[in-house]
Amino acid sequence: MKEQDVLLDVKQLSIAFQQKKQKVPIVHHISFSIQKGETLGIVGESGCGKSITSMSLMGLNQQTDTTGEVHFEGQNLLSLSEKEWREIRGNDISMIFQEPMTSLNPLMPIGKQMTEALFTHQAIGQKEAKAKAVDLLETVGLKQAESLLKKYPHELSGGMRQRVMIAMAMLCHPKLMIADEPTTALDVTIQAQILRLLKKLNEEMDTAILFITHDLGVVRQICQRVMIMYAGRIVEEGTVDRIFQKPLHPYTKGLFASVPSFKEKKEKLISIAGHVPKPGAIRSGCQFAPRCPYQMAQCLEKDPALQSIEQNHRVACFLMEGGEDTESPTLASESADKTV
Ligand code: SF4
């Protein structure tokens, strides 16, 4: 990866909540980067730290104790003032959420919301702002865009609202868009349309996308690279092709084994035994050890570091050090063609 191609570079990011007098760690020393125009997926179960990580990239979790470095085009975002953040949010980095109603103002017509966002970041006239809003609504596939400007969010369907959110996120042509489960609340056909739209915007506008999801099928459709998180750590990271062909971490293997496949007929789906640890209950050693069928003595003593197995593939598991065979009767039936 060439240094000039790196858009976002996260180094040793740790996030903790202060709960009464106790510090509750959520994210532990994670490091990753995103290249210009790249699509990176972050996958994990609820509570693994993926959403709080994305919030820190938008400066939206100021109530937390956050350490490390988040460099965006060379500037450390964690040292910005609120005024400096306002310059970057929506302009260079934008975000879309699972439920657009939480982000759209229910009392303001769509057009006003879009043009006000433009006025915040650009020296632009009313007529030009309106034309830009219409143009973007058409780009995201909304018909009769001009009349849509007068409508309120509640007058639109869920799929239309999500398209409006995407149009708003693209208003200032951001370099990075963070999409936090943007299709989870939508039905399958609308979900497919929104994913195609995001891919088109990524390709045509060269906007990098950080896609947060629990859905491996979505990652396969839209991402070039994927990062698997468990209990606030990155346990595996690599290109989508590589990880879908040969997942190596026992947790990633478990995720693949637990989703249905159209190609393989399974009697029943395999679930990963046990539960994700609660943030306050995090213990020493590998966090996945209580659920891992390959657990060894050293797994209970220290946390495995994320190591390069080969180019573009990193794994945090002691099995990789010993080159041990991770095939097991319980997790051996995973394949690269899983979808959800
Ligand atoms: Fe399992 Fe040990 Fe690897 Fe953790 S380090 S995933 S417990 S084998």
TrEMBL record:
<dbReference type="InterPro" id="IPR013563">
    <property type="entry name" value="Oligopep_ABC_C"/>
</dbReference>
<keyword id="KW-1003">Cell membrane</keyword>
<keyword id="KW-0813">Transport</keyword>
<comment type="similarity">
    <text>Belongs to the ABC transporter superfamily.</text>
</comment>
<dbReference type="InterPro" id="IPR003439">
    <property type="entry name" value="ABC_transporter-like_ATP-bd"/>
</dbReference>
<keyword id="KW-0547">Nucleotide-binding</keyword>
<dbReference type="Pfam" id="PF08352">
    <property type="entry name" value="oligo_HPY"/>
</dbReference>
<dbReference type="InterPro" id="IPR027417">
    <property type="entry name" value="P-loop_NTPase"/>
</dbReference>
<dbReference type="GO" id="GO:0005524">
    <property type="term" value="F:ATP binding"/>
</dbReference>
<keyword id="KW-0067">ATP-binding</keyword>
<dbReference type="GO" id="GO:0015833">
    <property type="term" value="P:peptide transport"/>
</dbReference>
<dbReference type="InterPro" id="IPR003593">
    <property type="entry name" value="AAA+_ATPase"/>
</dbReference>
<dbReference type="Pfam" id="PF00005">
    <property type="entry name" value="ABC_tran"/>
</dbReference>
<dbReference type="InterPro" id="IPR050388">
    <property type="entry name" value="ABC_Ni/Peptide_Import"/>
</dbReference>
<keyword id="KW-0472">Membrane</keyword>
<dbReference type="InterPro" id="IPR017871">
    <property type="entry name" value="ABC_transporter-like_CS"/>
</dbReference>
<protein>
    <submittedName>
        <fullName>Oligopeptide transport ATP-binding protein OppD</fullName>
    </submittedName>
</protein>
<dbReference type="GO" id="GO:0016887">
    <property type="term" value="F:ATP hydrolysis activity"/>
</dbReference>
<feature type="domain" description="ABC transporter">
    <location>
        <begin position="10"/>
        <end position="256"/>
    </location>
</feature>
<dbReference type="GO" id="GO:0005886">
    <property type="term" value="C:plasma membrane"/>
</dbReference>
